[in-house]
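Standup, Tuesday
Yesterday: got the pipeline producing C-alpha cells again.
Today: sanity-check two examples.
Blockers: none.

Example 1:
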Amino acid sequence: MILYRAITILFDIIELLIFVRIIFSFLRIDPYNSVGRFVYELTEPILSPARELIYKLGINTGMFDFSPIVAILMLNIISVILRNILL
C-alpha cells in the first residue's frame, strides 16, 4: 500500500534524524548552526512528548536523556498499529 509505505519512510527519516541528534549531542555540535537547528526543529516535536512521559512517570534518569529511546519505541508502536489498520 502506497500510504503505508510513505508513512514508513517518514518514520524512518524521523528515526534517522533522532540518531543524528544523539550524535550531535555526543560531539557537542552547536544546535544553533543551520544543520543543528534543522535537526533540532524536526526532532523536538517528537522528543518533547517522550520527555514529558518520562517526567510524568516519575523516572529519574539523572544526567542521561532517554527520550530518544522512548520516542523511537513510540514511533515503532505507532508504525505497527498503522500497519495493522492499513494492511
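Example 2:
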Amino acid sequence: MAFTEAFHCDVCGKPKGEEVEDWWLAWTETISPVPGEPEQPVMRLTRWHSFLAHSAEVRHLCTATCVYTLMGRWMLAES
C-alpha cells in the first residue's frame, strides 16, 4: 500500500502539487532579546523544506500573497 502525503496552503487551501512551486513555511516562536525582560513573539519564514513541513507548528503557504496575509493576521493578533 502506497503512502500519499498531501499539503494544503493554510491561508487559501490550495493543494501543493508535485511540480516545483515557490511554497513557503512559517512558524512562531518567542525570544528574549535582553535577559530578564519579557519574551517577545517572532514569526519565522523560510522556503519549503520537506522535513520542516511535517512539524505541527509550521504553516504551509503557497504564494507571497498568502505569506503577506498570514503575516498581517499575525501582526493584528499580537497587537
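Quick observation on example 2: Helices lie at 64-78. The chain has a mean pLDDT of 90.
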